[in-house]
Amino acid sequence: MRFEALDITIESRGRMLWVILAGPFHNEQVPNIREKIAGLIESGNLQIAIDMEQVTLVDEAVGAMLLEMLNRVRGKGGELRLVFRNAVVAAALAPYRHVIPRHEDSAALARSGLLRLLAWRTRRMARKTGVRLSAPVAWFVLFIVVGWLVSLALVIGWQTMRIRSQQEEIRELTVWREQTLIELQTLQERQRVMEQLGIAAEPASAAGRR
Question: What is the pTM of this model?
Answer without folding.
Answer: 0.54
